[in-house]
Amino acid sequence: MEGVDHLASERSRAQFDVEEMKVVWAGSRHALEVSDRISRLVASDPAFRKDNRTSLSRKELFKNTLRKTAHAWKRITELRLSEEEASRLRFYVDEPAFTDLHWGMFIPAIKGQGTEEQLQKWLPLAYKMQIIGCYAQTELGHGSNVQGLETTATFDPQTDEFIIHSPTLTSSKWWPGGLGKVSTHAVIYARLIIDGKDYGVNGFIVQLRSMDDHLPLPGITVGDIGMKFGSGAYNTMDNGVLRFDHVRIPRDQMLMRVSQVTREGKFVQSNVPRQLVYGTMVYVRQTIVADASCALSRAVCIATRYSAVRRQFGSQNGGVETQVIDYKTQQSRLFPLLASAYAFRFVGEWLKWLYTDVTQRLQANDFSTLPEAHACTAGLKSLTTSATADGIEECRKLCGGHGYLCSSGLPELFAVYVPACTYEGDNIVLLLQVARFLMKTVSQLGSGKKPVGTTAYMGRVDQLMQCHCAVQRAEDWLKPSVILEAFEARSARMSVACAQNLTNFANPEEGFLELSADLTEAAVAHCQLIVVSKFIEKLKQDIPGKGVKEQLEILCNIYALFLLHKHLGDFLKTGCISPKQASLANDQLRSLYSQARPNAIALVDAFDYTDHFLGSVLGRYDGNVYPKLYEEAWKDPLNDSVVPDGYQEYIRPMLKQQLRNARL
Ligand SMILES: CCCCCCCCCC/C=C\CCCC(=O)SCCNC(=O)CCNC(=O)[C@H](O)C(C)(C)COP(=O)(O)OP(=O)(O)OC[C@H]1O[C@@H](n2cnc3c(N)ncnc32)[C@H](O)[C@@H]1OP(=O)(O)O
Ligand SMILES: Cc1cc2nc3c(=O)[nH]c(=O)nc-3n(C[C@H](O)[C@H](O)[C@H](O)COP(=O)(O)OP(=O)(O)OC[C@H]3O[C@@H](n4cnc5c(N)ncnc54)[C@H](O)[C@@H]3O)c2cc1C
After folding, report:
1. Using one digit for the tens of pLDDT, what is the confidence trace for 24-76?
2. Where's it found, cell-wise (predicted)?
3. What predicted TM-score, i.e. pTM, was given to this entire model?
4. Ligand that lies nearest to the alpha carbon of residue 512, given by its number in the listed order
5. Domain 107-270: top CATH class
6. How is the chain split into domains, by residue range?
């Protein structure tokens, strides 16, 4: 029935103030106001319609994206939206596009690695979109191994230029989003060569296309790399291939904050660490963590609402059947994901703070926290994107058969999201970076250098190697100190075990390769500890609103105990908890699911997603699923005609043949 809220009774069961929870989710009252206003603006604009994406051809899809991005830019300028509002608008338009890379990587790369003069020259053009840029680092032959990039930038002292060249097929730039068909400029990464000497990989601004007719400039070959996973999905993006044939650019187009090349061709290293060349990746990894909570919460919102609508079995005396959300198995799959969405939100907030802090320190030439910022952004990007990709797929299964329909919104969400496990650093490669950081931390423990920040707990390693979990009753697992100690002990013991095993190898690098699978597990344990501890820290804040803090406490405990249950092997093997304590944790978890159950719908309402943004018949706010699913099916282009195209050519002759055979 139109206009009826089928989930009203669910909403009436909520034991907390949903409006206040919306503020917590958004980060502040101001952020909620902006987000709410902009999401409604996008939802009410027919130009941002997105329900037809899966039936468009690649060319139509791409042109449609160009139209939407142009319309979005028009609205941003007409309404004079602030940077924050404009970024929310792009978010709610919900279509991967070249603008993600322009605003998300090209501009940050210039900001982070350019000199003052370079910022003055390039940023105004980029901010007004008078140039459109992308981030061209990855090549056909190398993505993870940035030091293995082959594109060269050779300094020519005669003309005061760099000659950008792709010496091999594998040196072709491959993957950059926005490169294939749109970008006029790129920040490219190439090996700096002066007088035959290789100074490693640096960033350069290169114009790719003419500002008059958009044709590639001389010496440049550029195009799209082809269709990607899923229909619609990430195919709105023109991931590209790019080759240079001795393309000349002025010397002042090398990004020179980290290192400079003088007019005489002298290489000068600033007093900033070389790793700042990788700075844009640190920035984007941090935004990807925040984005993980958005993608996961969206899938969870769909699966939770649908689980309350869907009924199967359990009818007594002709009464209504059981809502599938009431099955404990459904709860044990769904509620940890709901809790993870909140956990990732808060760790994302914290990571943003860490990133801002490290940026301010870098400006004051304090580089001391850079290794930690790198390890945290790399590790949390890996942890949250892997969990989110798996979580979206789990939500699809939680919705049964209907979850497989594009109209559920889940297949497209999954297809758009999964590359996050690969881009901006393959998740395993990133965990190995965390592992290196942990091994370094452990190796320095006796040296008097006290571990700080997220590894401060390693400073109590002696105590953590000995401690015994104090849990005697299931309720003891609700104490934050108990949870923290278990996670700290597990992480410390796994890292120390790896460090000890490494000493069995004469060559530490060989040892690192041999033990890399164990090392990634230690890295995961450390990153999970960060997420759990930041959730617990969040709960120490003053959180207003009836019942809001209590709900968050339930979610925090679900998150931690679910992880404990999932990684029981780690906790038992390292002797952090006993089998009896593991079973008490499980009892507590079941009880927490029961406490979360009446609040589940309200907890996903707190994400404040419009039906337009969710793009899911199953996740509709009003729960009016069946009539809309039915309606949606008839909109499929296959149903445009009752008898399909191809009947005369293929079906009819086959049927006739069968008839003839039968008569014989
Ligand atoms: C809310 C809305 C948000 C929306 C968000 C949207 C944003 C837009 C998203 C758009 C979508 C897709 C974009 C995708 C873009 C890309 O994929 S760009 C390409 C990304 N590529 C990678 O990530 C490559 C991964 N590889 C690397 O990062 C490095 O090569 C690697 C770190 C793996 C290894 O580098 P090496 O140089 O070989 O380093 P090591 O020898 O291992 O280490 C040397 C030391 O440097 C330290 N290090 C390494 N990286 C960093 C860093 N980034 N920052 C600081 N420090 C770093 C490392 O720890 C070593 O330190 P040590 O010597 O041990 O002290
Ligand atoms: C949708 C999408 C958008 C992208 N956008 C951009 C962009 O805008 N700009 C850009 O420059 N790039 C972009 N990329 C490229 C992306 O950053 C790389 O694909 C990514 O960094 C992974 O590198 P790779 O492809 O070389 O993977 P590989 O490193 O070749 O990975 C292959 C396998 O090898 C494993 N492996 C690799 N090294 C190690 C190791 N040391 N130890 C153990 N295992 C290892 C990996 O775990 C993986 O299983 C994009 C990629 C995708 C999919």
Report:
1. 999 999 999 999 999 999 999 999 999 888 889 999 999 999 999 999 999 99
2. Peroxisome
3. 0.97
4. 2
5. mainly beta
6. 107-270
